Amino acid sequence: MRLVVCFLSLLTVFGPAECGNVLVWFTEGSHWINLKIVLEALIDRGHDVTVLVPGTSLYMKAKDSDRFTYQPFNVSMDEQEMRDFIEEFLYFSVYEMDELNLLQIQKKVLEFTSKLQDMSIAYCDGVLKSPELMDKLRNGKFEVVLTDPIYQCSDIVAEELNVPLVYTFRLSIANVAERLCGQLPAPPSYVPGVMSKLTDKMSFTERIINMLFYLSQDFFATIAWRKFDTYYSEYLGRPTTYCEMMGKADIWLIRTYWDFEFPRPFLPNFKYVGGLHCRPAKPLPEDMEEFAQSSGDDGIVVFTLGSLVDKMPKEISNKIASALAQIPQKVLWRYGGEKPDTLGENTRIYKWIPQNDLLGHPKTKAFITHGGTNGIYEAIYHAVPMVGIPLFGDQPDNLVHMKARGAALVIDNIKTMEPQDLVDKLNTVINDPSYKENAMRLSRIHHDRPVKPLDESVFWIEFVMRNKGAKHLRVESHNLTWYQYHCLDVFAFLITILTVVLYDMEEFVQSSADDGIVIFTLGSLVDRMPKKISNKIASALAQIPQKTTLKQQSQDLVDGLNAVINDPSYKENAMRLSKIHHDRPIKPLDESVFWIEFVMRNKGAKHLRVEAHNLTWLPVPLSGCVRFFHHYPDCSPLRLL
């Protein structure tokens, strides 16, 4: 059967698929939901997928699919402990955080971080400290480790198995992992830190805030990672850090795209694959379809605050229900709590809704969302304007992006929200055509790609399997110190040399006395001339009383023909480069034509143009400060406070 699947996979968009073995590190929640989509696609391509799953997991259950091979491992915690942690974190994020000052918030966050680290180390121990399991994995002939790195140690497993590592995830706060470990450039002058709630168009004050946000998150990440630095060093038996090991990943598949992200510098081993879970809408269940059709020309509104928030204080649910009762649209509300007293006849409550299918329904006029990435991408995919009610995490930041794009309005605080606030914002996004137009523009950008996001994800995973990694895409900055990264040693050397040369030249000029000097050059294009001519010129110059400075360059001609013919390494490297050249998701000529046609279809590509074009030179180098404090956290101003 597997041979049949492999044969059929030859007909797919990327041509031949060499069926291989994929090892997947444990993850949770929406991370698992997104990762599972990629795994299903890999299985469709004929690959065998083995998923490491702990005995205690809220979302990963072996019964979910018989297409995966589940490899269980033991952990020293129970399911209730995990549920209590999540509920405590959600309650703090939604209902307590606004009542605390910055130091109290940071203290609480560090407490949660410490608990999460203990959980992560328990998962690490369950795999790495099980000799039987590690032997089984070593004998599994895996060709790649795939992970969403919310839990650590997948990088250790990849190193122990000597196979490439691929990350697939959405973000880390302030992109600390992507920047400090993956070396992704992020000038704070125009790249807002993730979860800073800033855009790429920042005032001077906002740039200060962004800079301090980067510095503070780098500082706290450095502190938080020390526990893993110790764990990694002890397990591997050599000094290392979590960030160093994470930086060895061959490919970073980031679940975002330029329809959502502000333009920014990028790296060749980072790939934007946002919206890989999106798909065309399917028909609705019969009762939902009847309810939607009964809305007439007014249409429907889809409302959900995500799978993690099934209940809320009755005061808040009553406010929301009261607001929804005042709009002419029919409302489908996903909610698992007690029925509000103010629920209108136009509103139906469901414990579950087919969100993607509802957003793709022609009657849908607006989407009320908490700002989760999956929901936002489905709204972009189907061109639905949004009203955001962010609760925690990256949700406020996500909605800032949508508001800046003109596709959403935001209610900043659900606790202080009044019914009229929700009514006004819903009426605006539904009745002001600019919101629908902007949502349609984002949708066009989302769909207008040379390769679909799921196909691109599969391509790069298979790429590292075919090529035993992707080290040629990994920038050399991984191996540089902070002063080498910013060429400070080069500047110091050049300034020294320039000082010496100018001093020496000044002495030469002064030695000419009253006769002066002659400067002689035939331009930068004439670096060499026949010796007979140069001798004539030198003879002439020798007969004048002036001192002469002569610009001339020479270059030795080295015959390396025998070396490249007789040394097989040159041919091997040429073949390797040729293989890389041919192994692309889209041919270079086709890609050139695609992007030319893209700007024709979309009247340009301003959404890909970085804000640095509108800045003076002074703010841009600020990124050096961030990198300095990463290498020397003890020098951080935050450490000195």
UniProtKB/TrEMBL annotation:
Residues 1-19 form the signal peptide. InterPro entries: UDP-glycosyltransferase (IPR050271), UDP_glucos_trans (IPR002213), UDP_glycos_trans_CS (IPR035595). It comes from the Eukaryota. Its main location: membrane. GO terms for cellular component: membrane. It is found in: Membrane. Its EC number is 2.4.1.17. GO terms for molecular function: glucuronosyltransferase activity. Belongs to the UDP-glycosyltransferase family. Keywords: Glycosyltransferase, Membrane, Signal, Transferase, Transmembrane, Transmembrane helix. This is glucuronosyltransferase. It is an enzyme of class 2 (transferase).
